[in-house]
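Entry 12.
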Amino acid sequence: MVQIIKNAKVLNEQGQLETKHIVVKDGRIEAVLGEGADVPVQDGSVQTIDAQGKLVTPGFIDMHVHLREPGYEHKETIESGSRSAVKGGFTTIACMPNTRPVTDTPQTVELVLEKARQAQMAKVLPYAAITKNELGRELTDFEALKAAGAIGFTDDGVGVQSAQMMKDAMKRAKALNMPVIAHCEDDSLVKGAFVTEGKFAERHGLKGIPNESEAIHVGRDILLAEATGVHYHVCHVSTEQSVRLIRQAKAIGISVTAEVCPHHLVLSDEDIPGLDANWKMNPPLRSPRDVEACIEGLLDGTLDMIVTDHAPHSVEEKAKGMELAPFGIVGFETAFPLLYTRFVATGKWELSFLVKRMTSDPARVFGLDSGVLTPGAPADLTMIDLDLEKEVNPEQFATKGRNTPFTGWKLKGWPVMTWVDGQVRWSEQDGF
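Predicted 3D structure (tokens):
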């Protein structure tokens, strides 16, 4: 089966838009041809899709998501989560192990992979837990988990509190040439708090989560990564102090990479309208100064990629209010239009920069063969209508989660078609 996506706007190496025809064969990119080039005659059936001048990029890659299965299927399943992903333009997603049971055995890793194969939507890459049950007491069987298909080790959702445990984990991971991915949070500083230490907390008389609760673990783990030589990746960076520490570590050659979420780039604690739990996430929304530091860190390469930290919860759970509701918001379906509208459409960022941070950069950091529009690469593609403006309506989400602070926001630049290995998995026109 050959597909030809004609009249697509494609970003060239200089970040300029050119009209191209993309030829796909057997799930891979066969050729990217210039506007005037003759499309080679192919044996067998040919499917032609006219992009009509819409942008076509490599499929987005999200290296930090929560699919909730097994154990929390009322929040999300691997099928519903990966449907939401492709609707948002994501073709590869890496899911966190804080499920029930925790993804800490080969059998659970294999379950996740099998469920993803059955869903036939986005490619799902499972992380495995660093410690059994994410309790921080005993390391998991790294060798067996890697053999089962895990792509890295993390106790995301909780920080590894023991420095010795983290150092031992890094040594084991280094021996297997595997990354350690860290949720950075010192538990002794956050008990009883659910928003950042700042103006919102002061106004409502709440205990706040201080910036140093994140940065202390970032600094500790950077030193451990230097000692062990492991590839150390920092989850959902949210503070100015963390950005500064990562920048310094990179400058002296420590193998550290990092990610940031859209909500930490566009919202601060001063934007929270009230005690609405759809504004509750971990890390929490920080100060405007922290937001600017994260933007600067993304621009200068201190922060390598954008991730969503897609974290669905049920309406009933989020209705419990800011204090009792679980942390987290959904992110797949709003990520690109949110950042395009805020930063690209306003002239603050180049379109090529945003696309790079959502495609080739995560692929580079984690050694994936996707994220590029080059012959031989998987035909994981996203078509985007940069002129399409819509209002965010959670009732139209493909995810089970409705927990978003962006309800009612008018955004431009929506994905309208997604291919995984050359197969159309979703289109705005035809649905799933």
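Annotation: The mean pLDDT is 96. The radius of gyration is 21 Å.
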